[in-house]
Sequence to fold (406 residues):
Amino acid sequence: MPQRGGYAVPLLALTLGHVFANAVRSIPALAADVLQRDLILSPEGLGLLTSIYPLAFALGMVPVGAALDRFGVRRTSLSLLAIAGSGAVLAALAPTAAAMVLAQALLGFGCAGMLMCPMTFAVRAVPPARFMIWSGIILTFGNSGLLLSASPLAFLVEASGWRAGFWVSAGLALLAFLAVAATVPAERPVRAAGTSLLDDARAVLALAASRKLRPLMAIAFASFAVMFGIRGLWGGPWLMEAKGLSRIAAGNILLGFALAMTIAPVLCSAIGRALGRPVLLLAGSHFAVALMLAAVVAGGPAGWGLPPAYDAAMFFLIGCVISFQILCFDQVRGLVPAEQAGRALSAQNISFFGGAAVLQVVAGLAAAAGGPGGGPGGGPGAALLSFALALVICTTLFLLLRPQAR
Fold:
């Protein structure tokens, strides 16, 4: 087990993997048009392709949760970084949609532990009173990867094509691998006598289905899907197709969203610690984001016809408010002992990324139904509205399921 004290450098090294994950999964948002052209994809096909990453991510949470508790953070992190780095290289070389599907699967599985590794290390090494603050720091530093995939990525795609984005991401994965190897100590996790790796995997699934985690699983299903939906794909097409912006201008607006997602988690964790009302903050923030998404679409060409500055402000606010999802991690931490932290946090992440996978497909279908002019703001507007509806449904379930969890 990691010793208390001296945990800051290893935590930041582990969080470099989360920086990589945020950067690489955001590439399609600003390269959607050229990805469609080069890989010969329809809107539904693009939505399906980008759903492979979160689907593989969600499936990967079962073995990742078991590995974190059985083999420790260091070995798990290094293995996953090697897999994800290979996925980035394959994506950069992918000649066909089928090759990109495989690349997205490797990226999704490899990135499945990029947040869980530092979070699990923090549960075991950081004093409980400081965990909420450090969980915010982890997300704030990790979400800096979103900054790399906004305006910098837009310039890179314009200058060198979308494949260059995956090459840069592969280099970032290598940097994270070297940092973890150099700074994260080996550990000897406590294992229950007679348990197998399959038993540990079953424990992850059991926690995911457990009554005590059920409310958090419900809200998590739509929570990350919003961030992934905007930065992972639909934010770029909305700004470029519905609002008529250039790739660089769209990248600048999405940079604001990325900046919000970078600075807000640590602030939201501090607010949560000060107020001590996690249920109110989680439910209120997610209902508010649903309204904001509807307001974004209402400001499009089929509605109020507001200027791009309006979209910039709304995306920034959405990034700030959805960051209250950080409170989910502290809620899970309080429900299980430290030796089960890897499995419990991974169980919750199954819902975070499983929801992103499902809702990305739903958004693709909504976009196809909306068409270039047949829905509010066209296809991208219909996709954004599908995320708003999902937030309302899942947050309502979160509130309804809570009495059963007591």
